Amino acid sequence: MTTADMTSSGTQTGAPQGADAPDGILAARRTALASKVRPGARVRPEHARRHNRVLVLQALYRAEGLSRADLAREVGLTRVTISDLVADLIADHLVVELGVRADSRPGKPATLLDINRAGFAILALDLSKDAMFRGVVTDLDGIVLHREELDVTGLTGDDAIEAAGVVLDRLQQAAQAPVLGVGVGSPGIVAADGTVLNAPNLGWYDVPLQSVLAQRSGLPVQVANDANSAALAERTFGGADENLMLVRVGRGVGAGLVIGGSLVWGASSAAGEIGHVVVGTDGGETCACGKVGCLETWLAMPHLRERLDAAPDAEARTAVLVAAGERLGIALAPVVGALDLGEVVISGPLDVLDGPLLASAADTLRARTMASVHGHQAVRMTELGRDIVVLGAAVMVLTGQLGVS
Ligand SMILES: [Zn+2]
Prior knowledge:
This protein is α/β, with parallel strands linked by helices and 405 residues long. It is built from 15 helices and 15 strands. Zinc ion (ZN) is lined by residues 276, 287, 289, 291, 294, 296.
């Protein structure tokens, strides 16, 4: 490491620490994070360096305190390179020193490092609920520090966009630490650039939500479909396999796919849209989309609750749930088989989904896939509860801004 490197990496060392830094400095830091290029960087193999920064941050994010020597081993870089990278990351307030390891040998104290988990805030929004926009402020571990809710009954189009902006304003005011970025889980089909292509319930068609909210807040913003967001949450905070499908059941049925730890977008940004896949050749109810026997007609809550309410007794109710689970299993089997998924996670009302429906889906999946390979296939409910979408939105920010998940 040369002195010039030190100087270059230290352009922010004169800045006050953390939340006490003046707005201008914070804005500069945000801009730097957004572009992932540090100010003052000279011409050099910046891409390799950026890649190495991400490796270090990811190793620290997934561990509970590592020394520089641990990092060198884990990441596969030299001690000198690690020390250089760590100095940069400490100057950027992204990494902190925790103190000396308790079992250090005398004379060779190992200082433990961690990602600055409490030093930054993430703002996350869930726009997928009926009549309610929700938002949270989290730290880098997805710990919820503050909540906002806004009744959006009847709001569509520009009014709904404005409502999302109001929730974001409130979160921004509530944040106690420099904000790393904003993540949004939106209903409908969302392109990779954060444009909501189609969200009929909100009357949104080709709404550039990401750029609208970025302009409003001055922060980096990322928008994805709510089921995709939920799938990311399950991967990072739910302990899920890195090849998973998350199925969200509510007013409709959607899914998010994570393969090799990465979200799958698909050719039309509509990967995981299994709700309007026809399951079976035996007819069924006519769907809102015009087809007959779509998965949604079996599984979406309005259809399912209507059928449960009409059931005369407990036995009939169970039969309704078993039939819905079977259709879900029929829809899942070819996807699990084709992609060799490690697990399928279901998110939605526990009182209806957990029990006979889930068991029936698992049985059907087992019966319809190759038992020796996929027989162990887990189908389970998520344990992340109602925060699953906002947690996934926080993961988008972690990944987009720091490269960690
Ligand atoms: Zn349909």
